[in-house]
Hints:
- This protein is mostly helical.
- It has one domain (2-17, 38-97).
- It contains 3 helices and no strands.
- The model has no long low-confidence stretch (mean pLDDT 91).
Amino acid sequence: xxxxxxxxxxxxxxxxxxxxxxxxxxxxxxxxxxxxxxxxxxxxxxxxxxxxxxxxxxxxxxxxxxxxxxxxxxxxxxxxxxxxxxxxxxxxxxxxxxx
Length: 99
């Protein structure tokens, strides 16, 4: 049974790292959007391609902007924090029960 516990713990750590990296990508995209970035820059294109599939449905659901501020990155960051606390910690606690 300890193998299942170790597997769940490893899965929790990998999910946590992936969510943390994606959170920083969203933050960087939001900061870059404050300036007028070159749309042909490979880094800007990467940030857009990675974050737009997640941000677009949120913009469509709440309206594109709340005044002059695009709040979709804030909502995504809050969702990521929720997933880190709920899913990752739940997996870690479940892993402890299998040890």
